[in-house]
Amino acid sequence: MRQVILDTETTGLSWERGCRVVEIGCVEFVERRPTGRTFHRYLNPDVDFEPGASEVTGLTLDFLADKPRFAEVIEEFLEFIDGAELVIHNAAFDVGFLDNELRLCGPHFGSIGARCRVEDTLLLARKRFPGQRNSLDALCRRLGVDNAHRQLHGALLDAQLLAEVYIGLTSGQTDLGFGEAAAETAGDALPFEIDLSRPRPRVQVAPEDFAAHEARLAVLRKKAGAAIWDRLAETATDDDASLAPA
Q1: CA gap 212, 29 in Å, rounded
Q2: What domains sit in the chain, N to C, each tagged with a CATH number?
Q3: Is-catalytic flag, 153?
Q4: What is the pLDDT of residues 165-214, one digit of tens each?
Q5: Options 40, 89, 108, 153, the catalytic residue
Q6: The whole model's pTM is what?
Q7: Residues near 47 by Cβ (< 8 Å), separated by ≥ 6?
């Protein structure tokens, strides 16, 4: 499978207000491994930055003045991404801007969604880490990706970081060989018997830990009228009785 990890930088937060793309960074992966191929372009937007946007990227209109416009790199860009799965963080933002750039170049260029399948790593992160911050920087810290050199937002650098984050988000037991090992040994599994007459191991709890536990249960009983732990304890007692030898 061919994937392109993609990031853009823009003159502001909304293409509907006339903001434009000023940088595109792409990293190619095949079968979840980098090929070494990248696509990176700075672009002359022909519009000014919104307040604060230039500070985020470090880009200025003076720097971008001699850079190509999107229409000048569109063919090369589309050739690089066509047919690939795009991996983008907060994909709606980047795809919205890129679709707008395609429209400005002509309706015959279509849309990103018509050319590529899009995987949004922000949605993946929210499923894996619900209720937590899932910005690129936060995910780098959580997944052990070194981003110490990221002082400003840059499309190619962010795409490279996102590639590492994506591998961390989507790696699982199958990738580590556990799934294959389980499949190979499933037919050779040996039966085993459990002797229910033997006593089960007991965990010895320190008196101070038991006292803290009971104090916490007392608070729960006072607030809710009961603690679910009481019902679990009753069930465990019943199970013990049913397993006792006759």
Answers
A1: 52
A2: 2-170 (3.30.420.10), 207-241 (no CATH)
A3: yes
A4: 999 999 853 332 323 433 443 344 444 444 545 554 455 566 666 666 67
A5: 153
A6: 0.68
A7: 11, 18, 19, 20
